[in-house]
């Protein structure tokens, strides 16, 4: 009889951890097995059980032949999965911002990952940080993280074991290398299938060398250490019996009723490989906190108006089940021709998916965990600080205004991003006519929200994007917004809070453009004042200016934005919550 344990694949490693782009060939399963053996053999050099940035840089650049920028990207991407104290993130941001050049930055990264001998043999690191751990983490978890990148591997015949030829309905990649349009990072059914298909490979990646056969595979007598099960908790969590408490895999695996199924031996503190694999497969179920559950049985939120004269129905939902161990989820779809503005407890720390929203202005003014904007057109998104990542996919003519840890773009055209970010924006495949500009707005709680998610004003790499999927090394896919086209953005809502200006200010060239424009306005006002117009002439002149302003509002689409700020009639109000 199978013990009453339910396991599921966690959302975060795929949603936040998987780079939404095909991984380099050198991060395939074969090379990850070689990396595992190499690191274990060099435990005395600091490669195992914990891996530091200098050691990973050596493996990635020297053995796997990855560029240093890409090596740091994957390393730092894994860091964003770890729940770190916001104050330590702010301390690291201060240390990073204080570096004068790339060499000094590299020294700081190395120091933050290396324990240094001190009194009593204890290490020291950045002030306030646990010695030698900020850029140092478990190797086995990092190997699983690198393996998870295969979820976005693109090929006609999936080369990993257990997957079939694509069905006739599967969209093949285009000639430009654009992905099929399906976002696997959000689809928990894809996560479940991926883990089921590759569970044996991932387990073998965690085995001690003596437990592997000559061909680097497991046998019937292979044993799995408890440390390997702890690493698997990176991917799995679940509940036992009728309890609703979410627990990591390693706690559930040690539960006495499960020992017969998973082959645990208290004497050796190891698990039988075949029985463990069988037990994991039998316990795996749908993630109750994932997108599928949210869409199927989530709580419906009446945040959006239903626009008359259209078949589109706005749909907004959040998790019905919430747990302290799991980030909440909010999914909104088909918001059309309206302004939607929320600062809500429902949004705090949430993964947000915005899908197929058109001709709208969406304000989500709360600290968020991650945001994905997909298949949206002709819309503006103003977001609260995003702790992990903002990913924009298959969008056209959108404007995104955000302070975020990371921004990535794929298959997006004619869009502008006003950002403050400590990492380089990632330009993936299929983009066209992308503009970057400095973050240019504020709302009263903005700086408080930034502190809550550990985001500072420096360093700010808004203007130095990284081409991850180099399409003929074409830097022409993006440009920096000319200062002459730059205007500040006013968030038209009253809130309590202390922030009264754009955090960090503006770059000199953009501030100068605003100042020059303000001077022109003052000169114009002075000219009108000194013109000596009669009362009738002033009235006629005012009507002329108002008519011209109205024409401008219509031509630019700003009239819709102003109209949509008028509160809806009673009975159709956006719901609170």
From TrEMBL:
Domain of life according to the entry: Eukaryota
Keywords in alphabetical order: Cytoplasm, Cytoskeleton
Subcellular location: Cytoplasm, Cytoskeleton, Microtubule organizing center, Centrosome; Cytoplasm, Cytoskeleton, Spindle pole
Annotated transmembrane regions: none
InterPro entries, A to Z: C-CAP_CF_C-like, CAP/MinC_C, CAP_C_sf, CARP_motif, TBCC1, Tubulin-bd_cofactor_C_dom
Gene Ontology cellular component annotations, sorted alphabetically: spindle pole centrosome
GO biological-process terms attached to the record: maintenance of centrosome location; maintenance of Golgi location
PROSITE patterns for this protein: C_CAP_COFACTOR_C
SUPFAM superfamilies, per database record: C-terminal domain of adenylylcyclase associated protein
Keyword Cytoplasm recorded: yes
Region (Disordered): 103-123, 167-188
Domain C-CAP/cofactor C-like: 324-455
Family indicated by similarity: Belongs to the TBCC family.
Name recorded for this polypeptide: TBCC domain-containing protein 1
Source organism of this protein record: Atlantisia rogersi
Name of the gene: Tbccd1
